């Protein structure tokens, strides 16, 4: 009796060593399979070995630990695999873009426009497009940051009742607005309705429409995190409400607000579809965003990618690398700032 | 004394008046910004309808049944049927591919990974959302499309009796399936991010109760985490659907445009409303652009409907509407 108790209580479980053995067996069997049958390829090898491992692991667990544990192991393995599966395309996109981009990029790429470059010439660059993107994103920011921030202030500080509900609801709905529809709207309103023609400014407005909801949501989250004690302390000193918001709430939330705004900028910098319908594209350098078509970096990549010539496709890759570098730098910058955020 | 009191009162009231004015202005600005957002949504609807009317006038109700797209021909023949079909089909296939992966990844990050690692993993998955769509498109054409061909061919040869897997002319490549694969990658971060929020809202006590009863970790997830999260996850999937419906540039690059209603997702060709606008805009005449606006209006209505429904579901499921995108 004294001996049966503890023994019965101790659950039999599959040791790590046994799991390792199962894994080695799976790889070995796959290797055997690949030499004996017409199977080939690295990807196939990994896939077959993985499937064998999952099946074997479940079977061993079923035999040693019972059905519930086997099901547990199988499910957890699949869940973790899902995470890896989600990260594979990210790695593939980044690695492949960097590979092709580094091969394609040249010193002249960042300093030359496409003005007068023939279809088969291995020349030209994205300078005009970079200038355009810079201006368009600045215009979008100038429109959307104050508007978005103030709307977030309304939602958090003043909002009561149904109006705030509807504003929040439509801000959320607006985050799902297809970017091409934002472009179509500005085209219908600015180009067709007001006869203003294509321009960098029109593109900036279209980008602003996409940026506003992102700014509102991010600012709203941050303003909500500011403790009420701070506001009350300020009121107690006789500071009016608006001064409290401007000089107490904003500074307290500043790190988070900056993060949100940078992420919003990163998001719209890569938008192509709205530029197509508003900036339209232009091969030469145009620094004035208010008159005439302009290019933008994503638009440049799109138009070069559509070409049948290798030199153009190479320019597209160089542009894609530049674009991804800008966007990733902004994203990392935003994350670094998050670390400094005392509220989060 | 009797003179001083009113003077100080006057002083005080002037300063409160100034305070009130400052407050009024600031409040007005912020209310105005909120209303401006509502106005933008209304303006989008109004201008799209207004500028699309001539196209509706030209094509009449055939706009919804016609598959061809020759708006600048005489007589003009164009309709949104094939485009709308392609839009929905590609997005549905994308969801089928991505939903298990996105939810599995979200569960791993919230339920299995140590807290810090989970947060970091969330950031990494979110990076998928900042990669520009034109980069996905370029990568899709030159990397993914060729990689997917053997798999499609294998399925066609071995499971071709299922119409979905069949390629009648035995060609593969820039198909709806390839476009859906790219779309799947692009909507993964949205579905994963919102699902993570939803799972995080489940009270810790639920999990502890299940574990205390001797449940395994999977049983805990299945019995304590998933049931209260169901409607939130449904909302997340619908938001991903809305995003996939409106994705433009990646589809425009990957898909070889054609205008027909075709369920054979492995056959090259197909089109979506958004991709068609992007590819046809430059070469379109006046009627062509009006027709594109009309198709954009259809896309706007569909995505608005999907998004509103999705937000409704998410709002109701998580009391604190933490719809982070």
Largest sheet of chain B: 2 strands, antiparallel
Overall helicity of chain B: over 70%
- Written as H for each helix and E for each strand, in order along the chain, the element string of chain A is HHHHHHHHHHHHH
CATH architecture of the largest domain in chain B: Orthogonal Bundle
Please outline the major beta sheet of chain A: none
Number of helices of chain A: 13
Distance between the termini of chain B: 63 Å
Q: Bin the helical content of chain A.
A: over 70%
**Rg over CA atoms of chain A:** 28 Å
Fourth CATH level, the homologous superfamily of the largest domain in chain A: MetI-like
Number of strands of chain B: 2
CATH class of the largest domain in chain B: Mainly Alpha
SSE-based structural type of chain A: mainly alpha
Task: Name the CATH architecture of the largest domain in chain A.
Answer: Orthogonal Bundle
User: What is the CATH superfamily label of the largest domain in chain B?
Assistant: MetI-like
Question: How many domains comprise the coordinates of chain B?
Answer: 2
CATH class of the largest domain in chain A: Mainly Alpha
- Catalogue the unreliable spans of chain B: 1-5, 320-325
Summarize the structure.
Chain A is an all-alpha fold.
Describe the secondary-structure layout:
The complex is a heterodimer of chains A (about 350) and B (about 325).
Chain A: H1 4-9, H2 16-36, H3 42-65, H4 67-104, H5 127-158, H6 161-175, H7 179-193, H8 200-225, H9 228-236, H10 241-269, H11 273-278, H12 297-305, H13 310-339
Helix pairs in contact in A: 2-3, 3-4, 4-13, 5-8, 5-10, 5-12, 6-8, 7-8, 8-10, 9-10, 10-13, 12-13
Chain B: H1 4-59, E1 69-70, E2 77-78, H2 81-112, H3 115-130, H4 133-159, H5 176-201, H6 204-212, H7 217-246, H8 249-254, H9 273-280, H10 286-317
Antiparallel strand pairs in B: 1-2
Helix pairs in contact in B: 1-10, 2-3, 2-5, 2-7, 3-5, 4-5, 5-7, 6-7, 7-10, 9-10
């Amino acid at each position: 009796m004294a001996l049966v108790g503890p023994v019965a209580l101790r659950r039999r479980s599959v040791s790590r060593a046994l799991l390792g053995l199962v894994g080695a067996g799976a790889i070995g069997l796959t290797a055997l399979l690949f030499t004996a049958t017409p199977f080939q390829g690295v990807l196939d090898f990994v896939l077959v070995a993985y499937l064998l491992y999952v099946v074997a692991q479940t079977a061993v667990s079923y035999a040693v630990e019972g059905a519930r544990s086997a099901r547990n192991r199988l499910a957890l393995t699949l869940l973790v695999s899902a995470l890896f599966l989600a990260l594979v395309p990210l790695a593939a996109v980044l690695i492949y873009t960097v590979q092709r981009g580094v091969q394609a990029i040249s010193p002249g790429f960042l300093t030359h426009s496409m003005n007068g470059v023939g279809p088969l010439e291995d020349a030209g660059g994205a300078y005009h497009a970079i200038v355009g993107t810079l201006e368009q994103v600045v215009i979008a920011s100038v429109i959307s940051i104050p508007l978005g921030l103030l709307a977030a202030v309304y939602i958090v500080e003043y909002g009561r009742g149904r109006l705030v509900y509807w504003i929040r609801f439509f801000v959320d709905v607006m985050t799902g607005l297809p970017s091409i529809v934002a472009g179509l709207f500005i085209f219908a309103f600015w180009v067709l309705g007001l006869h203003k023609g294509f321009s960098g400014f029109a593109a900036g407005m279209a980008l602003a429409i996409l940026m506003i909801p992102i700014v509102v949501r991010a600012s709203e989250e941050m303003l909500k995190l500011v403790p009420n004690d701070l506001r009350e302390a300020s009121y107690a000193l006789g500071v009016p409400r608006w001064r409290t918001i401007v000089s107490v709430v904003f500074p307290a939330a500043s790190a988070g607000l900056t993060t949100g705004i940078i992420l919003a900028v990163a998001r719209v910098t890569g938008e192509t579809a709205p530029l197509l319908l508003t900036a339209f594209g232009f091969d030469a350098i145009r620094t004035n965003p208010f008159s005439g078509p302009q290019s933008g970096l994503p638009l440049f990549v799109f138009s070069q990618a559509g070409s049948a010539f290798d030199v153009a496709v190479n320019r597209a890759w160089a542009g894609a690398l530049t674009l991804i570098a800008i966007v990733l730098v902004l994203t990392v910058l935003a994350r670094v700032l998050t670390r400094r955020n005392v509220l989060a | 004394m009797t003179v001083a009191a009113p003077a100080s009162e006057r002083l005080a009231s002037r300063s409160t008046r100034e305070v009130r004015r400052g407050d009024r202005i600031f409040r007005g600005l912020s209310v105005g910004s909120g209303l401006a957002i509502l106005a933008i949504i209304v303006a989008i609807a109004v201008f799209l309808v207004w500028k699309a009317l001539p196209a509706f006038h030209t094509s009449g109700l055939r706009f919804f049944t016609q598959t061809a797209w020759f708006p600048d021909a005489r007589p003009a023949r164009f309709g949104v049927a094939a485009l709308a079909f392609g839009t929905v089909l590609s997005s549905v296939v994308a969801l089928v591919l991505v939903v298990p992966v996105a939810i599995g990844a979200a569960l791993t990050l919230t339920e299995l990974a140590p807290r810090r690692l989970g947060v970091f993993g969330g950031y990494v998955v979110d990076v998928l959302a900042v990669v520009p769509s034109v980069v996905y498109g370029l990568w899709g054409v030159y990397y993914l499309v060729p990689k997917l061909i053997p798999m499609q061919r294998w399925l066609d040869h071995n499971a071709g009796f299922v119409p979905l897997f069949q390629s009648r002319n035995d060609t593969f490549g820039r198909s709806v399936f390839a476009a859906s694969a790219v779309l799947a990658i692009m909507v993964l971060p949205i579905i994963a991010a919102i699902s993570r929020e939803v799972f995080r809202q489940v009270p810790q006590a639920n999990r502890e109760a299940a574990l205390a009863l001797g449940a395994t970790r999977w049983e805990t997830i299945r019995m304590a985490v998933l049931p209260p999260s169901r409607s939130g996850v449904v909302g997340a999937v619908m938001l991903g659907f809305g995003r996939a419906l409106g994705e433009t540039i990646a589809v425009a690059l990957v898909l070889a445009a054609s205008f027909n209603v075709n369920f054979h997702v492995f056959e090259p060709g197909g089109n979506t409303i958004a991709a068609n606008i992007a590819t046809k805009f430059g070469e379109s005449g006046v009627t062509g652009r009006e027709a594109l606006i009309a198709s954009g209006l259809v896309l706007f209505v569909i995505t608005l409907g999907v998004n509103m429904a999705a937000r409704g579901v998410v709002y109701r499921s998580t009391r604190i509407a933490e719809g982070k995108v």
